[in-house]
Amino acid sequence: MNYYLKVLQNYTAFSGRARRSEYWYFVLFNMIFAITAMIIDNVLGTTFKMGYGVSLPYGYVYLLYILVVMIPSLAVAVRRLHDVGKSGWFFLIALIPIIGSIWLLVLLATDSIQGDNKYGSNPKEVIV
User: Fold this and answer.
1) CB-hemisphere CA count at 13 Å for 22?
2) Handedness of CA 2, 103, 87, 117 (dihedral sign)
3) Alpha helices in 45-113 (DSSP H)
4) Among the residues of the chain, which ranges form H helices?
5) Contact between residue 18 and residue 80 where contact means Cβ atoms under 8 Å apart
6) Of 26, 30, 47, 29, nearest to 38 (Cα)?
7) Of the given ranges (16-20, 29-33, 55-59), which has the lowest mean pLDDT?
8) Residue 65: alpha-carbon gap to chain centroid
9) Is 54 helix (H, G, I), strand (E, B) or coil?
10) Which tens digit of pLDDT belongs to each residue from 107-128?
11) What is the pLDDT of residues 41-69, one digit of tens each?
12) Could you give the CA distance from residue 78 to residue 120 in angstroms, rounded to a whole number?
C-alpha cells in the first residue's frame, strides 16, 4: 500500500526510476480499487445504460477513479521503463497489435539495470 501512495504523491514525476515492486504493487492496488469502484457503481445503480435494458458493469464512480489515476499510472510506467534503460516513449510500443503489448509487459517485468543510467541512480541500491 505504501508503494501505491508513493506513486500518487509523485504523480507528476516522469523523471527518475521506479523499482519493479513499486510498479507492480501500484498495479495490484489499482486493480483492487478499480474493481471496488465497479462494485460501488453496481450497488448504487450508477452504471452506464446502453439501451434495450443493457448496462455496462461500470459507471460514474469508476470513471472518476480512472481519471484520477490516469496520470500517476502513466508516470510510474515511464519511470519503470527508465529503470530498465528505455525511454518513456517506449510505452507507445503497446500500440503495435499483440506483440507490442507483450513486449511492453516483458520490459515492465524485467529487472533493473545495475548501477546508474542516464535516468538516475538505481532505486534498489541503498545510499549510505
Assistant:
1) 24
2) positive
3) 60-83, 99-109
4) 2-9, 20-44, 60-83, 99-109
5) yes
6) 47
7) 55-59
8) 13
9) strand
10) 999 999 888 899 988 888 755 5
11) 999 988 888 878 788 889 999 999 999 99
12) 13
The rounded distance, in Å, linking the Cα atoms of 25 and 80 is 12
Q: Can you read off the three cell numbers belonging to residue 33?
A: 480499487
Cell of 85: 534503460
How many residues does the structure list for the chain?
A: 128
Q: Compute how many other C-beta atoms are within 10 angstroms of the C-beta atom of residue 49.
A: 11
Return d(Cα 105, Cα 24) in angstroms, integer. 11
| Contacting residues for 92 by C-beta, under 8 A, at least 6 apart | none
> What's the whole-model pTM score?
0.87
> Rounded to an integer, what distance in angstroms lies between the CA atom of residue 35 and that of residue 23?
18
pLDDT above 90 as % of the chain? 68
